[in-house]
């Protein structure tokens, strides 16, 4: 997805929210794309045409406000017209404290939010139409600040471990993460899974896959052997197997099928942002 633009969270949300983003895209190009697994949970407010989820049961219309939880396979969402949406990009440990729901990636593709969120989505649609995305994002942040953290959660150990996973691109040893959390490996895994619905090892794989995607978008011709070395895969074949397990395509097929990013790659600011955002100093 080509997010445009990206907004930083207010200080109250900064530890648990990576960013807010807005998207406008024509129906034809949007419907060619897929949501590949990544390390964040999206809380999407649809302010444009109806969205439909492709599922084993056929096309299912999505509510205006929904959660795209952690996925392990591509997700296909189709727009019935011009696509406009705003999203809050959460770290997975923040779902319980901010949304007061569980997000189990093994059983749920998309989670519809409650009636308060649906009414808010209707309000946000009007704000976008009459006052623009900037004001809509401000209202979104204000709404979240009023409704989040209703119950007390002791997240510091999991939050610290999660950010370490991100900074290491998923390559830190699980035993080292547990030790830094002053927990045994089994205690750490139970607590991490309680908040994220996924084991730390499985989450590390998703984090690493997300960084791999970003590196290929910044430099589609980068050598896979070099990426395997940077991200700690045993060899190029291991990298390709891991990529295919999440994306249902090879890394080269992914790079070749992302022509919409060509213009962005010519933009120095975008490339600099991606390299800094994912620490891609080697991506060329």
Describe the fold and architecture:
- There is one protein chain.
- By secondary structure, this protein is of the alpha+beta class.
- The protein folds into 2 domains: 6-147, Jelly Rolls (Sandwich), CATH 2.60.120; 154-284, Arc Repressor Mutant, subunit A (Orthogonal Bundle), CATH 1.10.10.60.
- The chain has helices spanning 27-30, 95-99, 115-131, 133-147, 156-167, 174-180, 185-196, 200-218, 224-230, 236-247, 251-256, 262-265, 268-277; strands at 6-7, 17-25, 41-46, 51-55, 58-61, 65-68, 77-79, 83-90, 111-112.
- The strands form 2 sheets. A 6-stranded antiparallel beta sheet has the order 1-2-8-3-6-9. Strands 5-4-7 form a 3-stranded antiparallel beta sheet, with no helix packed on it.
- Helix 6 packs across helix 7.
- It is globular.
- It comes from Reticulibacter mediterranei.
- This is HTH araC/xylS-type domain-containing protein.
- Keywords: DNA-binding, Transcription, Transcription regulation.
- Residues 154-257 form the HTH araC/xylS-type domain.
